[in-house]
UniProtKB/TrEMBL annotation:
Domain AB hydrolase-1, residue spans: 41-285
Regions crossing the membrane: none
SUPFAM superfamilies documented for this protein: alpha/beta-Hydrolases (SSF53474)
Protein name: Alpha/beta hydrolase
Entry-linked InterPro entries: AB_hydrolase_1 (IPR000073), AB_hydrolase_fold (IPR029058)
GO molecular function: hydrolase activity
Organism: Mycobacterium pseudoshottsii
Amino acid sequence: MQTLPEDIRADEANVVTLPDGRELACLEWGDPTGYPTFYFHGTPSSRLEGAFADGAARRARFRLIAVDRPGYGRSTFQEGRTLRDWPADVCALADALGLDKFGVVGHSGAGPHLFACGARIALSRLAFIGALGPWGPLATPEIMGSLNLADRSYARLAQHGPRLFHALFAPLGWCAKYAPGLFTKLITASVPAVDKHRMRDKRFVQHFQAVQLEAFRQGSRGAAYEAFLEYRPWEFDPSEVDVPTHIWLGTHDSFVPREMGEYLERVIPNVELHWAAGKGHFNVEDWDAIFAACAADI
């Protein structure tokens, strides 16, 4: 069941100051009295993406706290950050919100950040991971060979530092801000038929464009640097993930090849991976099933 809110609440944000003075912006979706769960957006994206899981979170009684990662939306860019820094930020945010224990869920480029939390946050504090179409470690040789030409090229560029990524993401950020129709056409051209059908949903597209506009609020630096991190070898191994993990992958997902899902299923110790037959990358209706699976770990 898919239920998108009418209002994506683009002007709303709860900005929390971290111990080092940086700010993280978040926006709550779902059931405000439900189980606290952080929502990690894709790459590039923003806290507004939580709208796509809002209805499912309300039905399953999850309090969904969607967070802008550093450099996105209203969160401070963090020079030199690594994937290992994110779990500490999440715990600091949980402390500021008065949360002793919580879950984490997310979509697409959220994968590295979800799995970093699973590897670095103790089970006594992190209850579960729920992931829709998550990226795995792209630089792993067995995954690299299954990537499309563009992703293989990005992985090679990542070996030479972040500057080239800034050049690549600047036009993307310009499109998101000043030519959203062109941005949508570029994304639509790269997805399978099932996702092309999704991109004909007027409300979905309106929300998608608003999400991306907010992602590039500060320019393209945050998205470019994060992509650089994700295409490089990670600073941890997914086999270190030590919490119950629930993954849903579409069999027609053009961004997450089957080999990537099989790799994650093989190396993450406590994982349940579900193949969504005939689905693509934007199968947001599967959030109902993901939250149902995560509820068993509360």
